[in-house]
Amino acid sequence: MSKNCDAKIVVVGAGSVQFGLGTLGDLMTIGSEKLAGATVMLHDIDEINLMRVKKVFEQAIKESTDEGEPVTYKVEATTNPQEALRDANYVIMTIEHGNRMETWKQDYYIPTSLGSTQIYGENGGPGGMFHTFRQVPPMLKLADTMHDFAKGAYLFNYSNPVPRLTWAINRYTAKFDPSFSKRNTGLCHGVGSVMAFIEGLFGGILRKCEFVSAGLNHFYWVIKLVTKDEVKIREVGPFPEAKFPASTDLLPEIRKRAPVLFDEMEAPFLTELLDIYGHITYPGQSHPGEYVPWSMYYAMASKYDFKGDASHSKQMKKQMQDTIDGKATNFWWVKQSGERAIPIMIGIENDTKQDEHAVNVQNNGCIERLLDDCTVEIPGFVDKAGVHGKKIGRMPRGIESLLMREVLLQDAVVEAAITGDYNVALQALCMDGTVPNPSIARAILDKMLLVQKQYLPQFSAKK
Fold it and tell me: With CB atoms counted within 10 Å of each terminal CB, which end of the chain scores lower, N or C?
């Protein structure tokens, strides 16, 4: 590729202190040379947060250029979605509809107060359902705007619930742009957590192994770990240091050794899953626990730290303002985030044919026996034609059953999120294993539709 990149990269929800600023950190580091010359359009409906991020981004560019490492992005910002998306090549989605912590507290506390046994309420359980219901309307508006103003653009979504939103967009756009699903990829850094766990368990051997995880976002399973060269794994608990030749399957060693670390982490739920299903899933107990109805008996303490997050967000906004005011430098945020949107863009621009450990894409038979149009998290590769999932085949039998049950539930949630159909939403709650009976399902649905009415236009239109 020539030195200059003429792509237009749009960050929707750029005011986000996590994914918005993290994306700009990736642009300043790994993207600064290979995407040099690109237009970076920042978009958010919150103008105060948007302009704060724009200022620190422009300041970082100036500082880097002054220090002899020129960054040549053209930076623009707008609260107008049509202006933002016009002629875009890449769109990164990082939005949250409504006050994230306030709505999440409602997602968690209201269903549990009415009898649900959910443990986290972000991506699964009744809380994950209403999170989906809130996120889908602005997502579908984005898809419409992309269709009108940025045909052919790639969409990379960081916003949760990743698989349900990716599926909803694909189902909605299939009516007028069937090719949209090929350019729509959900991204999550969760796979890095299980890779870090394996590195800690064995002692830094992954570079010498073939690693495969597959399943659903936040509910993926390590199904292959085979050595490519001789490896030495470290001592863990009662298990000694050991050497293994190339072509050794290390899954048996994970089954023996992982419970030692799970015990140190006080994570009995993960030990139980490994014992029953023979494979590890991650990150932590809270994420996979959203999809297993009996997780509450092992992981009751998995509730999100709402106060801690709010405090962290406030601190980061103060750091940004201090940077703008000259009281701090940009070094605290100009770093790689570990997210994959920017590396994937570089892969498309340069036709790298690079492998990716985890992408959330339309299944299309990659995992057998799951619905073709559902969204799966699987290994992929990137070339000039975009992001492609790799064929997995059938998952281990017990895990396959868990995934099939969750996909059928997600199918109903996605349909209700798009249509605003009360009865389909009720059916979804009745399918959810954390909802004991239909009376509780109705109580949760009616209360949440009332409390979050302003964020759920698809349901209000049905009244």
Answer: C
Name the token pair of 297: 């008996």
| CB contact at 8 A, 129 and 103 | no
Rounded Cα distance, 255 and 336, in Å = 33
- Angle in degrees, CA 27, 82, 39, rounded to 5: 25
Question: Are the CB atoms for 128 and 290 separated by under 8 Å?
Answer: yes
- pLDDT at position 316 is 85
DSSP element (H, E) containing 449: helix 438-451
Q: Which residues of 23-43 are buried (b: 16+ CB within 10 A; e: fewer)?
A: bbbbbbeebbebbbebbbbbb
Residue 376 pairs in a beta bridge with 361
58: closest CA among 378, 276, 309, 334?
334
* Whole-number Å distance between alpha carbons of 145 and 169: 12
Using DSSP bridges, classify how beta strands 375-383 and 386-389 pair: parallel, antiparallel or unpaired. antiparallel
> Rounded distance, CA 433 to CA 124, Å?
10
Report d(CA 452, CA 457) in Å as an integer.
Answer: 10
1: pLDDT confidence band, cut at 50, 70 and 90? very low
**Burial call 198-229: b when 16+ CB within 10 Å, e when fewer:** beebbeebeeebebbbbbbbbbbbbbbbebee
Helical (H) or strand (E) element with 331: none
Concatenate the DSSP letters of all residues of 366-413 into one string. SBTTS-TTSEEEEEEEEETTEEEEPP-BPPPHHHHHHHHHHHHHHHHH
- Could you give the CA distance from residue 339 to residue 214 in angstroms, rounded to a whole number? 18
Give the bridge partners for 387, in sequence order. Answer: 382
pTM of the prediction?
A: 0.96
Using alpha carbons only, give the angle 330, 332, 336 rounded to the nearest 5 degrees. Answer: 100
The 10s digit of each residue's pLDDT in 42-89 is: 999 999 999 999 999 999 999 999 999 999 999 999 999 999 999 999
Rounded CA gap, 435 and 130, in Å? 14
Name the CATH topology of 8-187+333-351. Answer: Rossmann fold (3.40.50)
Beta-carbon contacts of residue 191 (< 8 Å; ≥ 6 apart)? 213, 220, 357, 358, 377
- Long-range pairs for 426-432: beta carbons < 8 A, 24 or more residues apart: 428/129, 429/126, 429/129, 432/116, 432/125, 432/126, 432/129, 432/293
- Phi then psi for residue 233, to 5 deg, are -105, 150
Residues 6+ away with beta carbon under 8 Å from 151: 177
CA triplet 124, 355, 198: central angle to 5 degrees?
Answer: 60
Q: Is the Cα dihedral 138, 143, 148, 149 positive or negative?
A: positive
